[in-house]
Amino acid sequence: MIVPLSVAPGTLESTMTEDLSPAERYAAARRRAAEQATALASFREMYDFGLDPFQIEACQALEAGKGVLVAAPTGSGKTIVGEFAVHLALEQGKKCFYTTPIKALSNQKYNDLCRRYGAPKVGLLTGDNSVNSDAPIVVMTTEVLRNMLYAGSQTLLGLGYVVMDEVHYLSDRFRGAVWEEVIIHLPESVTLVSLSATVSNAEEFGDWLDTVRGDTEVIVSEHRPVPLFQHVLAGRRMYDLFEEGEGHRKAVNPDLMRLARMEASRPMFQDRRRGRAMREADRERERRQRARVWTPSRPEVIERLDAEGLLPAITFIFSRAACEAAVQQCLYAGLRLNDEEARETVRALVEERTAHIAPEDLHVLGYYEWLEGLERGIAAHHAGMLPTFKEVVEELFVRGLVKAVFATETLALGINMPARSVVLEKLVKWNGEQHADITPGEYTQLTGRAGRRGIDVEGHAVVLWQRGMSPEHLAGLAGTRTYPLRSSFKPSYNMAVNLVEQFGRHRSRELLETSFAQFQADKSVVGISRQVQRNEEGLAGYREAMTCHLGDFEEYARLRRQLKDRETEIARQGAAQRRAEAAVALEKLKPGDVIHVPTGKYAGLALVLDPGLPAGRSDGHRGLEYQDGPRPLVLTAERQVKRLATMDFPVPVEPLERMRIPKSFNPRSPQSRRDLASALRTKAGHIPPERHRKRRSQAADDREIARLRAALRAHPCHGCNDREDHARWAERYHRLLRDTKQLEHRIEGRTNTIARTFDRIVALLTELDYLRGNEVTEHGKRLARLYGELDLLASECLRERVWEGLSPAELAACVSALVYEARVGDDAMAPKLPSGKAKAALGEMVRIWGRLDALEEEFRINQTEGVGQREPDLGFAWAAYMWAGGKGLDEVLNEAEMPAGDFVRWCKQVIDVLGQIAAAAPAEDSTVGKAARKAVDQLLRGVVAYSSVG
User: Fold this and answer.
1) Lowest-pLDDT range, 535-539, 687-691, 802-806?
2) What are the helix (H) ranges across 768-833?
3) By the 8 A CB rule, do 561 and 735 touch?
């Protein structure tokens, strides 16, 4: 029960107080006085609204000296608890660090705290900004705090509280380990405030925090302050997803179920007139004529939401290009969501915020099209946009001057940009490898933006109808409010040398065993052990069921399995031999060869543009791109340029013809592809593909197969009338035995997994002379200052003086290969590279990576588990070289063929690593440090130099 802070005469509380005895009234007065004397009472006076029960509970636990984990829905006000930690730190004369997962969120929080406490009391530290870092309150990205802890920074002195906002980020497979590193290594005297989305295993995470951080209170709230209503928009009608059932139970709307059944029974329309795909406009017209419902267009959706009073809205589209296209579609449809006064306000604000951008760059950045959309109240928001443009969109949206935003899912990650409605176009997205259904957790994060506290009475999530949609599946996504938090913690090379330097090998190993990853692995072993016991009981039953009165049926079943395995092995050997022959044939291909691709998606006539042989094959390292053999880049007769794999060639391929590839051929030009494909069809379209005859099976001549067949026929159980019945039980026995052994292997594998990986990393670092027992060598101390995915490769390049003598622009090109990762596959020509020293240095970097890759294989360090060095990507080297060399934005973006936002982001990451290299490079007899500092200055100009903070 929360006792009121004051009791006014004549109120219910005063009446209740009058009914108490004198002793009880005295005790109540003491409680009120005690509460008014707390830090929470003075904190509550700073806000013009009352706190929710979960916020009060968390703040009281903090004031009592406990750590807290707060798990609550998006928009419920978790950050109030973080701000109370800031308040406590200032009252107690201590420091508070407020950490966030992304720079945009750090910038936003910095501005919020400056408004509340004044700029002199608040600092900011991100990868590319440092403002007032000695202030009592410092907002920073989590990586900055991790680096401080390893460096033993003086800024940590007097630290009393650390707030970890969006702590559920520790599930992120690329960056999640940083959160656990911070939690494990923070001094015991620091109180930790963890703020998370609603996760289903908050208690488990709280138990772990209790283990590593001491007394931690877990506060879970699943209450949304603004209720969320779910809808499906189909054609002209907006359906509620749920209807109230008996006892307030939610049931899927039966109208939606009928609609799904009706659509499922309706045959898909095919254009029989032409036997090929119709034009989009024709197909849309036909679909609307033949169906009662359709997927509304983007302008139709916005108009419908506007008519229903459901704007402002965020429409999530899982593609940057589609977000930009959506804005254009709304403009072409003549949508206007702002009046003339709002248009003028928008234009004034945009001109003020973009005044720093050079006029010649505005056209390159698509400024005028972007401004037209903003003036009409429509905008896109995605990572490919210039940071300035994104920040303007966020500000205008919060102020109600932009009412429709088309965004990728990155907007859902913490940015304070709530809307009245959220629209999801599809329930499928590309996850980097394939198109996959969005998870309940992702659905919760996306729809959590709907409903603005203090503005909206209710929020609305609208999913657009798609043919084949399952209302039950959507209801499952909407009904699952939480998702589990899974650790993605893995040791790295940098982590290993930093831990050994601070704690020694033995203590470091013990520290890693306290990670949340190991905590979860140890708990999961209990369930697996129970399953093993159940399996063993099942095995006894199966053994009894397969008993044969004529002999040992287990022995007979073993002979059958051996025969089957041998036949499979022979078939596999034959397939491997055919693949090897096909690979040899592929290696003989030359640019200009005309071939017939025998199978796969691109089967048919093709022209070889590049044989796709791995560079440096003689090194013998396992290249990620070419580990399965040559990968020729071809132009198909259908005008597609694709890089094929060996699986497209199950049989050897021979050139049918030769063609000259024009020097002017550009694979990115549709006209170029069309002309060359036409010439290809003219040259070789009439040549039939070579037919391959089937070979005699090797199994017919195999002695071991003949022996096993004879042994089967001679076995007593072979003549049993119930032989096949026994065999079925034997097969079940064998399958269960195999599963049981796998479970036992998993138990062995999950015990001390993190420590075993650490041991292998330490062994490799010892081999390379970064560590000698508990001693960190000079090379190791250099590695300790290099953070990033390719930390060891960067250290080896410094050690082998690969970058000595390079100009600042050349060094920027080389360093870009350490950070850049292409968003798409390798279906393109080799990237353009700077000539001279830079090209030689990039080649040497790839050679060093090959040596490290082979070494990792030897030490069983598995890159697929998130440990190890990926191959450096040279795709940004030319752009970094040009920009550092002073070229204009127009020229660089045209050459790089990349959005401005991506270009700026990669430049800032290159700048970050260049700063690390400048600090780690040898001070004497080395030009690298000086070149790195100059490269930072040369990159940090124009659109890259802009910062919204201050």
Assistant:
1) 687-691
2) 778-783, 791-799, 808-819
3) no
Residues 199 and 171 sit within 8 Å (Cβ to Cβ): no
Rounded distance, CA 888 to CA 907, Å?
A: 14
CA distances from 457 to 31, 198, 224, 453 (A): 35, 22, 11, 8
CA torsion angle 461 462 465 466 (round to 10): -60
Cα 636 from Cα 640, distance rounded (Å)? 5
Cα three-residue angle 604-637-678, rounded to 5 degrees: 145
Judge contact between 53 and 21, C-beta under 8 A: no
538: its two tokens: 């099942």
Per-residue pLDDT at 486 exceeds 90: no
Tracing tokens 């041998």 back to the chain, one arrives at 566
Using one digit for the tens of pLDDT, what is the confidence trace for 827-841? 456 788 888 899 999
174 near 150, Cβ under 8 Å? no
Q: Which two tokens stand for residue 533?
A: 């016991």
Q: What is the pLDDT of residues 837-877, one digit of tens each?
A: 999 999 999 999 999 999 998 888 876 556 778 889 998 99
- Return the H-helix or E-strand segment holding 758: helix 753-767
How sure is the predictor about 273, in pLDDT bands with cuts at 50, 70 and 90? Answer: very low
Instruction: Provide the Cα torsion 633, 635, 639, 643; round to 10°.
Output: -20
What span, in angstroms and rounded, lies between the C-alpha atoms of 4 and 56? 13
**Residue 411 C-alpha from the chain's centroid:** 13
Element (H, E) at 106: helix 103-117
Which tokens hold the place of 903?
Answer: 């270009």
Residues counted in the chain: 950
Q: Residue 447's closest CA among 197, 279, 811, 676?
A: 197
3-state secondary structure of 251: strand
Residue 763 pLDDT exceeds 90: yes
pLDDT over threshold 90, residue 577: no
Pairwise CA distance, residues 869 & 847, whole Å: 13
* Strand 459-464, strand 421-424: pairing: parallel
Residue 882 is predicted with a pLDDT of: 92
- Among candidates 75, 897, 808, 764, which has minimal Cα distance to 414? 75
The first and second tokens of residue 926, run together, are: 């080395």
Burial-class residue 819 by CB neighbours within 10 Å (0-12, 13-18, 19+).
buried
| CA triple 393-399-405, angle to 5 deg | 40
pTM, 2 dp = 0.70
State pLDDT tens for residues 876-895. Answer: 999 999 999 999 888 888 88
900 versus 762: the higher-pLDDT residue is 762
Q: How far apart are CA 745 and CA 507, in angstroms?
A: 27
Query: Rg for the chain (alpha carbons), in Å?
Result: 33
Residue 533: what pLDDT?
Answer: 75
Coil/strand/helix, residue 484: coil
Q: How far apart are CA 849 and CA 653, in angstroms?
A: 32
Q: What are phi and psi of 426, to 5 degrees?
A: -140, 160
Distance, in Å, from the CA atom of 768 to the CA atom of 869, rounded to the nearest integer, reads: 15
Taking alpha carbons only, the member of 315, 620, 896 closest to residue 904 is: 896
CA-CA distance, 41 to 110, in Å (whole number)? Answer: 24
Written as six digits, the tokens of 676 are: 């060359």
Element (H, E) at 504: helix 493-512
With 0-12 / 13-18 / 19 or more C-beta atoms within 10 angstroms meaning exposed / middle / buried, residue 198 is: buried
Comparing CA positions, the residue from 161, 172, 226, 418 lying closest to residue 313 is: 418
User: Quick one: how far is CA 286 from the chain centroid?
Assistant: 39
Q: Among 381, 367, 379, which Cα is nearest to 327's?
A: 379
Question: If residue 164 lies in a helix (H) or strand (E), which one and from where to where?
Answer: strand 159-164
Nearest to 877 by CA among 924, 920, 840: 840
